[in-house]
Specification:
The protein folds into 2 domains: 189 residues, Response regulator (Rossmann fold, 3-Layer(aba) Sandwich), CATH 3.40.50.2300; 126 residues, Response regulator (Rossmann fold), CATH 3.40.50.2300. The chain has 395 residues and is of the alpha/beta class. The N terminus is likely disordered. Helix 3 packs parallel to helix 13. The protein is built from 14 helices and 14 strands. The chain binds P-hydroxybenzoic acid. The site of P-hydroxybenzoic acid has 11 residues, from loops.
């Protein structure tokens, strides 16, 4: 009986579809009226835990609002992007063309992000970047439908050079994975460190996601700089920290980094991480009610410690909620949706932040030091730091 009614209902819809020019799947979708949210994140590989934390905290933000967006129920679609840039466009299209998502949340890796970005710009689908810091997305290729809740790659490292110089480290070696995130993190580091009077004696790199650090660590030992600064993240960062200590460098040449180095890896890295100083827009130890409530809720829900990635996922949820509430769930009202998201103040665990004109957070950057498997705040390295947004013209 149920089946028959469904069949009859569908054939009626087909007749209707023929007269309106709509296809059956589109009608059924419109009838369901759920907001279709696509999550394109790394669920495997060196960034797997980053993707998982973003996904979990994003859902937590929506759950805390009764599980709805602008009064509508939500349906999730997931794709594992494997942090594999050549598959970026195809994977984004699985969500946009096949699953017809209304909004795309993703991703972590800057190279994959450029694939998502192309699809977002061509399709006009709402895109929220919960991590990848690639400059182009909120500089020369900025777009009205693309918002970032994380950082630009040079934002965290711009503020790193000054504290290093304050400690008297006048000559540094830089080491990273050679791809957009590492190269752009270097731009920020170079700018801040050289302005503070430092000299970069050597730039070292290896392809993403390689973790064969040994030859490079031997080179660092030979170069004997005053300090080393780096960009690594995820499982690769944990290994770099351990290898740096195992090579006997930890107590000889202080290690600094873009703060991702010590995010989500402190259990895996153990005592090898003690004393590492980094700059980032978040710290576990921020002593605010907002941060504490977030950390407790995340830890109880997911039995895992939150990190900066969880915060960015959570904030992506908050941003989407702000936009969807403003238009009462009507995503066809794009101008109003985008305006509300542009104007939102996000009450984040990292501290309140607002969007720059190019759709990237204006935020404080904290100086942190690892002690007792925690990133402790030592001070504020940069206040209300905005990315330049160079070349951004909102079309
Ligand atoms: C990036 O590829 O943009 C990226 C990846 C991991 C991070 C930060 C940036 O922790």
């Amino acid at each position: 009986m149920t089946t028959r009614r469904l069949v009859l209902g569908r054939s009626a819809a087909v007749v209707g579809a023929a007269s309106t020019g709509l296809l059956l799947p589109e009608i059924l979708r419109a009838q369901s009226n759920k907001v279709r949210v696509g999550l394109m994140l790394p669920y495997t590989g060196t960034f797997a835990s980053l993707g998982t934390n973003i996904d979990n905290a994003f859902r937590m933000a929506i759950d805390q609002q009764g599980g709805k967006l602008g009064g509508r129920d939500v349906e999730f679609f997931k794709v594992d992007d494997e942090s594999d840039p050549p598959k970026g466009v195809e994977n984004a299209n699985k969500l946009v063309q096949r699953d017809k998502v209304d909004v795309l949340i993703g991703t972590v890796h800057s190279g994959v992000q450029m694939g998502i970005h192309r699809v977002a710009r061509e399709s006009g689908v709402l895109s929220i970047i919960p991590n990848a810091g690639v400059h182009a997305a909120t500089r020369a290729q900025c777009a009205p439908n693309v918002f970032r809740t994380s950082f630009t790659n040079s934002q965290p490292t711009l503020a790193l050079g000054k504290p290093m110089m304050d400690k008297g480290h006048k000559k540094a070696v830089w080491i990273t994975w050679k791809y957009a995130a590492g190269d752009e993190a270097f731009e920020g580091f170079k700018d801040g460190y050289t302005k503070a009077g430092g000299t970069i004696v050597k730039e070292l790199g290896l392809p993403f996601p390689n973790v064969e650090f040994q030859a490079l660590l031997t080179e660092i030992a030979t170069l004997k700089p005053d300090a080393v600064a780096c960009f690594f993240a995820g499982a690769g960062a944990a290994k770099f920290i351990r290898d740096y200590a195992a090579a006997g460098l930890k107590d000889k040449i202080p290690l600094y980094g873009s703060g991702f180095l010590t995010e989500g890896v402190l259990q895996a890295a153990g005592p090898a991480a003690d004393g590492i100083m980094t700059t980032l827009h978040y710290s576990d130890s921020l002593d605010t009610p907002r941060n504490k409530a977030f950390r407790t809720a995340f830890a109880t829900t997911y039995r895992a410690q939150p990190d900066v990635y969880a915060v960015q996922g959570f904030d992506s949820g908050l941003l989407l909620i702000a936009g969807m509430n403003a238009v009462k769930g009507d995503m066809s009202n794009k101008a109003a949706l985008h305006k509300a998201m542009e104007g939102a103040t996000i009450d984040s665990p990292r501290g309140k932040w607002t969007m720059s004109k190019a759709h990237n957070p204006i935020q404080d950057i904290y100086l942190r030091k690892v002690a007792d498997r925690e990133n402790k705040v030592v001070g504020i390295a940069a206040k209300q730091l905005a990315d330049s947004g160079a070349g951004c013209r909102m079309g």
